[in-house]
Amino acid sequence: MNPEKKKRLRRKYITVFLLLAPLFSILLVFKYYSFFYSLFMSLFNWNGLGKAKYIGLDNYRNMFADAAFRVSMKNLLTVVLFNCAKMLAMSFLAAELVLNVRNRKLQSFFKYIFIIPIVIPNMVHTLLWQWIYDYKGLLNMILEAGHLGQYAKPWLASENALWAILMIGVPWIAGIPFLVMLSGLQNISGSLYETAQLDGCPYLKRLWKIDLPLIVGQVKYILITTIIASMQFFEPIQVLTNGGPGTATLTPAMYMYQQAFGYYKFGYSAAIGTIIFVLVMIITVINLRVLNKDVSID
Amino acid sequence: MKASKTANVISILILILVAFITLLPLYIMVMNSFKTDMQYYNSIMSPPLRPTLDTYRAAWDYVAPFMFNSLLVTVGVTVLSLICSTLAAFAFYKYDFPGKEFLFAALLALMMVPGFMTLAPQFVIAKKLKLLNTIIIQILPLTGATSVLSTFLIRTYLEGLPKSLFEAAEVEGANVFQTLGLVVVPLCTPILTVVMINNAVQAWNNYIWPLVAANVESVRPVVIAIKNSPAPLYITYGTKFASYVITSIPLLILFGFNTRAFVEGMTSGAVKA
């Protein structure tokens, strides 16, 4: 290699290094290091202050014997399944309905209406629903007005608390999945619909046989992002019920937070985190495999 | 293709109903933020007949310093994240270097790491760096977290642009920073807008991390400050709702100025998996 070329190559690597350095220095300190630190910590008994004691896989053994952890996993399953169902169904239906609107102006009006909730801060949203579910809140007022007063209760303190939290934000046409579906459906060629119409294909059959198969990519994207988000679901729970009453709304993330910052069991908490990470990884890999298999659908 | 007339009418009716339910909590929030408790108890659904601004005065007195903290954090995260991810995305797009694919995969792998998993270690690091209870510690980890997806989105967007656009700049003898400033940033405006809004929303929403690492009065973000009706907001329902409205305004303004670009960016396919 001549010196001129060598010099150019060196300059290129320096440029690449300078471009990547800001991002990766932050990630190294706060993400990569934290991640491996957490894996490592899961093998220790540590309260965050004193000396950590190596205990091998004991944290993991204790976890599977822990009734609260098992309840949290059961709750997690409910959360993931219900969130996937509601996100897919509602964003698909809303996108189809919006596309049925003939007037362009009206169409984009609805589009914007359904985007507004994205920019309302999560905390405001959660606190509004806290008020809705309050004993003196909107839901009970509506029940009273409909002569169903005997069903009124403090929803977030009841045995239905998990469902109350899952129902937050009904009808769940929350921005991004809706937009993704909409852009997918907009890309379906009109001639396909015309053929279907000429063949006398009924509307519902068209949705099922043409629209859904053609937006499989979008469906999978929404599915994977919803699953990953649901696996980590706990901010509203932390605000509204702190996992209670009892363990009614306990999710692994919530439990992990309690163990770390409530009881200072950093090692045990790290073990819970590791399990959730492994689950997310498995789901992502499966999803990528399936995703790569039938790209031909486009 | 145009939908049939009946489908059109039925769809509009259902959408009106759905939009109504979606916006109802926001409507109640805004309407009741202008009411005294007496008016609130009279009817929560009606618009305020004699709107009062006392609620906003009381709420603002309480939330103003926390709003300022949140603003600092959000601007910090948004700007830093735009810089970090644009630079990195450009490096991945433009150059070949050993370990490139590995580095990019390592970057994407971070998306699988649950945020709460790094919470406790981050806390320990922050403590060692003596950064607990500062603005900067609210900014840095979130900048990292938001930059991962941002880098991916910007790189994907760049790959979709014709190469010739960049070659022209090179022939002209532009250096890396000129290319970035004069070619990349203007060309990437749609995706940069999406990234900016997404990251600003995340930064403003950031709750658990500051709860753990920066929950003292001087640096507390507004979303923690308004939680669980703190005494100064508990005076009336109106005050409480007014504080929610105030907390919502900055993102609404940001979004209001960029609505079209955001929606176009989101639906352009750049965000597809």
Labels describing this entry:
heterodimer; A: 298 residues; mainly alpha; B: 273 residues; 12 helices
Mean pLDDT of chain A: 89
> Helix and strand succession of chain B?
HHHHHHHHHHHH
Give a quick account of the main beta sheet of chain A: strands, pairing sense, barrel closure: 2 strands, antiparallel
Percent of residues in β-strands of chain A: under 5%
- The oligomerization state is heterodimer
Structural class of chain A: mainly alpha
Relative strand content of chain B: under 5%
- How far apart the termini of chain A lie comes to 46 Å
Which bin fits the share of residues in helices of chain A? over 70%
**Rg calculated over all Cα atoms of chain A:** 25 Å
Query: Given the helix and strand composition of chain B, which structural class is it?
Result: mainly alpha
- Give the end-to-end Cα distance of chain B, rounded to a whole number of Å: 27 Å
Radius of gyration of chain B, Cα only, in angstroms? 23 Å
